[in-house]
Amino acid sequence: MTETPERPRRAGHGEDSIYWDKSKNRYIGAVSLGYTPAGKRNRPKVSGKTKTEVRRKLRERRKQLEAAAGANVPARYTVGQAVTDWLAQGLKGREASSVDTYRSLADTHIVPDLGKANLRDLDADELDEWLEAKTDDLATQSLKMVHSILRRSITHAQRRGKAVRNVAEWVEVPDGKPGRPSKSLTLEQAEAVLRAKPGTWINAYVAVALLVGIRTEELRPLTWAHVHTEVSDDVQPHVDVWRSVRRHGETKTRKSRRSLAMPRQVAYVLEAHRNRQREERLAIGSEWCADGLVFPDDNGEQRSALNVRRNFRALLREAKVGEPPFEEHAFDIPDEWTTRELRTSFVSLLSDHGIAIEVIARVVGHSGSNTTERVYRKQLRPVITAGAEAMDDIFGGGADSTATEPPESA
């Protein structure tokens, strides 16, 4: 009996697929064998009158192809070797920081667990169990990155004739443990932070990050040529956010390249910081340069993110963030904060002050308000009252309200 053609289901990554070809009046099956050395999909096809026939032919065809290809695949080529080769050859042109992140994840999670396994013997069930075991240690995003490293490493091996199939494409990434929630400073905490370590570069750095909302990756390469502290009736102090630590100095997005007015408080802090920097350069016999970094390290070079984070946490300890009367949560200790949370604090403080989220999104350089609303804004008020207040205005929540009044007590 001939089967009735069904609407085909889209095959997942690495799956064999079966679909109805109306022009041939037959079912077509495609074997997914990854990629050719040229980078094209390798999908040999079979056909039949029924799906059952096509499935049988697919199994036979896959066995034939894998047996033929497997004859040329190194029997002792391991997962660890595949990952090492991909890290060395498959990331050309990538930022050193990105390569370091991939290498750290691979060395910590893939190589110790799977590194000695022969790549040709790796199966999907084994990977499923391995990923599931990682859910207690890794957040979902980290699990996805680890899985991506393994998948891309095997793809790299396929293109060099060292692997036949990519079993990493056949497994789903489970949900990991909840990620660390970002947070923002309260108004009282922010005021304490701005008073801490006066006259130091980290105090000036925090003032700019917290009161202007610039990303830490944009602050670290900031030069004095892009800082304008002049105060006049015609010109407002501002900072040109035109560079970042990303490749070629580009900002994160096109809208991230922007000029931002700064509060006069920040202008005064930066002007004092510039004068101190000039005096320090003069004391060591070095010339101060207007194109120099605003927040250089002791060698005049760009500070690392780690260096800034350590100094920021020291400032938090002096400001007594995480101690009474500010401590409200178990994670509210200085070593649990990161510099990017100065930016979430900037967004939250503006939002709590009543600034429209669309305006905040433009200031922080987001392409739309969704990211600002979903990720960065941490509403500080215990109750979001905007909806109720608007309805009171619309329907008149006072004595003339048309709503049913509560019954009088007896």
Structure write-up:
With 410 residues, the chain is mainly alpha-helical. It has three domains: 17-70, no CATH class; 79-170, Tyrosine recombinase, N-terminal domain (DNA polymerase, domain 1, Orthogonal Bundle), CATH 1.10.150.130; 187-336, hpI Integrase, Chain A, CATH 1.10.443. Helices cover 43% and strands 6% of the residues. It contains 14 helices and six strands. The strands form two sheets. The chain has a three-stranded antiparallel β-sheet, covered by helices on one side. The protein has a three-stranded antiparallel β-sheet with strand order 4-5-6, with no helix packed on it. Helix 2 (79-89) runs antiparallel to helix 3.
Concise structural overview:
With 410 residues, the protein is mainly α.
Largest sheet: spatial strand order? 1-2-3
The number of helical elements comes to: 14
Known CATH architecture of the largest domain:
Orthogonal Bundle
Order of helices and strands: EEEHHHHHHHHEEEHHHHHH
What percentage of residues falls in helices of 4 or more residues?
Answer: 40-55%
- The first-to-last residue Cα distance is 81 Å
Helix and strand composition category: mainly alpha
CATH superfamily of the largest domain: Intergrase catalytic core
The CATH class designation of the largest domain is Mainly Alpha
Largest β sheet strand count, sense and barrel closure? 3 strands, antiparallel
Q: Give the total of beta strands.
A: 6
Strand content: 5-15%
